[in-house]
Amino acid sequence: MNYLKEFHIIFNRLKKFSPLFKEKRFELFDFVFFKLKIYDSAIALENYYSNKTIVFVGQQLNYRTIKFIKWIKKNTSIKIIVVCQKTPFANDLSEKDYDKLILLRNRTHLKRIILGSKNIDFIYAFSSNPKHARIAIELSKATTIFDPYDCSIVYIGNIPVPLSQMKFIENEKKCFQLADAMVARSPENIVAYKLYQVKKKKNIYFADYCDNNLFVCKNVEIKNSDDPIRIVYSGSIAGKYINKITDGLTDFFSFIDALENQKIIFHIYPSPFVKQANYQDYIDLEKKINYLKVHTTVAQENLSEELSGFHFGALPHFKLESSTLSQHKLERATSLKFYNFLEAGIPILISEEMTYMAWVVKRYKIGIVFGKKDFPNLRNIILNTDYNELKRNVLKAREKLSMKNNLPRLIHFFNTIKN
Q: pTM (2 decimals)?
């Protein structure tokens, strides 16, 4: 194929003349080959394996997907192929966790890979941003599964979609429409079906279940009524000047103010995805008061050990009056940190406004549900609760709400939709 040889010669000459071209050379390479219908055979398998093959596809790996990949690979005979962009989270996977890892150069590269694929059982399209998931679902001939993580349409609800999010929402809607099956981490999917006016698909509820390999159990007690109570939060936070309309659940200043004189110390471990500028206000406040501590980010694999030394994991999410966040989000949302706290073996303090997670806490008796009205009296509420019983309940509940206990359900689901 002489034209390929000539193209490479011209391509290599051109890239020497411009740093910009050098950065974009692979985009041009993939674009030209895509137009010539020369596809990438990275996942063109010679034959179907006797054991199923799942291709996990998305822009940026999230920890939920990483946990699934590790547990499926370690506990089943399913072959795992991972297709994603190179990001820090990709480093959380080692070679033993998959059969093949393909790092994407751009979206056109993904199109070439999907169109060149062969003998694949499943495409598991995960979303941090649904544009890559949409490409995989639209172009693949294999059975497609969509895992939306958080449903973006549920944040917005019935209000008109902001212009800045229209493309994002359009991509997510297409994934809901075209995927053969869905994996839901929360009850949000039920609302998304209605808002998108999409007929319900084959689906499974599969939460961010606890990783049994990260279980910790420390002998932390509240020995005396005068002892300081240490509570901890890990995740996204918003400073005083962040847009409160969209970030109306991660402003904790009113909650922190209420802790004064209660001998409750609030510790924060920011998400690695949050820029320090977004939480600089908390760092500044920490210098003025002695009941707030802001820590550096901790990797997921070390987080349960770090959290295990505190009395409670806290989810003090309360919607600001100025926020346009939909009521559905409050009622249906779930959180990875919820299961991080259980892995750490600590009870959970949770806002009554987070209806679904508060229901789980009540069902398993693994923490305390509180409202804004309880802020001034939070210490007394804690001291009047049998803390040791909560701890025992956490240890029982996390076994039930674990990957080890629930993975067989997910594998059965895969078998069901393929058959």
A: 0.89
